[in-house]
Amino acid sequence: MILEMDCGNSFIKWRVLDGLKVVGGGVVDSGQELVAALLASPLLHITSCRLVSVRSDEETASLITVVSSRFSVAVKCASPAKVMAGVTNGYEHFERLGLDRWLALVGAYELSRRACLVLDLGTAVTADFVARDGQHLGGFICPGLPLMRNQLRTHTRRIRYDTLSAEQALQRNTPGRTTVEAVERGCLMMLRGFVLSQLELAGDYWGEDYEVFLTGGDADLVACAVPDGRLVKDLVFIGLAAACPV
C-alpha cells in the first residue's frame, strides 16, 4: 500500500492507496499524529511512501525520518521540475512555483489532456492556466476566504464572531443584516468574483475548448459559479503520482 502526503503549512493531508483504490485518509497536524492514525488502522500495511511538502527543509526531513523509521519504507519527495508529465512550467524561475500548486496543475493536465484552468481554493486562492500542448501560461494568487476573514477580524476591532456563526451566515446570499453575515457573504462574493474573472480570461484564450478544475477546501463554495467545473479534491495527489511513480 502507498502512503501519500500533502504537507501544507498548517496541516498534513494523507491517504493510503491499495492499487488504485483509496483505503484510508485524513488530516493531521504532525508526523506523530499521522503515525498514530496509521497504527490505529491495522489493516493499512504501508510498503512505500511519497510526499509533497511546502514546509521548511528541516520540517520535511524530520517528517520523512519519522515515517521511514516507523514503517521501514523509502520516502520519495516531489521536487521542482521544468517539465513533468507533459506539462512545461511557465515560471521564469521554475523552482519558485509552489510545489503543491505545480502538482495540482500537473494532475489536472494528466486527467484532461486539453487546455485547462485550475482553481485551488484554500487559505490562499490560486488560478493556473495550462494550454492544450501542456504549456503552463502562469497564474494568479489572491487571499482565500480564511485570509480575508482573518484580516478583517485583525484590523477591525468590532468584528468578532465564532465559526458556527460564520457557517450559518453562508447559508444565504442576501445582503447581511448582521456583521457576521455582511463579512462572510461579502468575502464569498469577492471569491466568486475572482473565479468569474478567471473564467472570462480562459474564454479569451480558448473560447469554450477548455476544462475547469476546482480543488481545495473551499471549492464547494464557488462550484455554483462554475456549473461545468470538475471538482477534484485530491488533485495534488494525482500530480504527486506523476512526480513520484512507485
Automatic annotation (TrEMBL):
SUPFAM superfamilies: Actin-like ATPase domain (SSF53067). It catalyses: (R)-pantothenate + ATP = (R)-4'-phosphopantothenate + ADP + H(+). Pathway: Cofactor biosynthesis; coenzyme A biosynthesis; CoA from (R)-pantothenate: step 1/5. Its EC number is 2.7.1.33. A monovalent cation. Ammonium or potassium. ATP binds at residues 6-13, 123. K(+) binds at residue 120. The keyword Protein transport does not apply. This is Type III pantothenate kinase. It comes from Pseudomonas endophytica. The lineage of its organism: Bacteria, Pseudomonadati, Pseudomonadota, Gammaproteobacteria, Pseudomonadales.
